Every structure is written in structure tokens, then in C-alpha cells.
Amino acid sequence: MTEKRFPRLPRNIVFALLVGCALAGVGPAAAAEGQKKHGTGAEVAPGDKELNAFVKAYVEYHKIRSSYGAALENAKDPKEKKRIEQEANSKVKRVLDTQGLTPERYNRILASLNNNEELRKKVLKQVEKERQKS
User: Is there a contact between 7 and 61 (Cβ–Cβ < 8 Å)?
Assistant: First the structure.
């Protein structure tokens, strides 16, 4: 049986556009990679409230990704591609803000789920329930 993992956020919907200098060109995958190298000694494990926020943001993010992915891939004009990216990024930013998460915290939670099988299974069940609601 293959292990289900949470995918990293793709670079075409970059959080660098969302938070400007906060990420200073470090993408989600690089942020997660940096966490692996430096360990999580100072990290606070996500509580139930934060996991619920993550689940909602995760489901909404994938809806946004589905609705903008094809348009982004098919856009030939760089200006149009940028406009689509900015629109998608704006929606992702609103979702994270609504859930009280920063892009950095979202990615840290994502990394912790990929490193903790028990927590990952719990969150995947919550994701399925959230998807059924929407």
C-alpha cells in the first residue's frame, strides 16, 4: 500500500508574491527543506484549532489550484500568466488570512504532517470530511 502524503505547494502559485520580503525568494519547498536541516526543536506542534484551520485552508487551496491551474498552464502571454498568478495568489492569501495562518506556518504544518504518520492520517480524515461539506 502506498503512503499518502500531502503535496508541497507548487511554485506557480508562489507565496513570495503573497508576503513580499517575508519569504525573500524562499519557496515553500525550500522552507520545508530548511526545516528538515535545522530540525524542529523550537517548533510548537499544531493544536486541534490550528489543524482545523490548516484543513480548511488545504481544501480551499486545492479548489483554487484546480480552478486556476489549467488557465495558468495555457496562458501564452507572460502578462496574462502574471495576472492569473496574482489573482490566484490573492485568493490563497485571503484563505490563509481567514484561517489565521501565515504561509510559513502552513508549510511548517504541512512538513510536520509528512513526518508524522499518525497526525497525517488524522488530518487526511479531516480533509475528506471538509471536502464532503463543500
Answer: no
Q: Are 68 and 88 in contact (CB under 8 A)?
A: yes
| pLDDT at residue 34, rounded to an integer | 43
Using CB atoms within 10 Å of the CB of residue 106, give its burial: 0 to 12 exposed, 13 to 18 middle, 19+ buried.
Answer: buried
Which amino acid, one-letter code, is at 38? Answer: H
Neighbours of 64 (CB within 10 A): 18
Q: Do residues 112 and 43 make contact, with C-beta atoms less than 8 angstroms apart?
A: yes
From residue 28, alpha-carbon distances to 9, 16, 38, 63, 131 in Å are 6, 9, 15, 19, 23
pTM of structure: 0.69
Integer angstrom CA distances of residue 134 from 53, 60, 102, 114: 15, 9, 23, 24
Alpha-helical regions (H) of the chain: 16-19, 28-38, 48-74, 78-99, 103-114, 117-133
Average pLDDT, the chain: 77
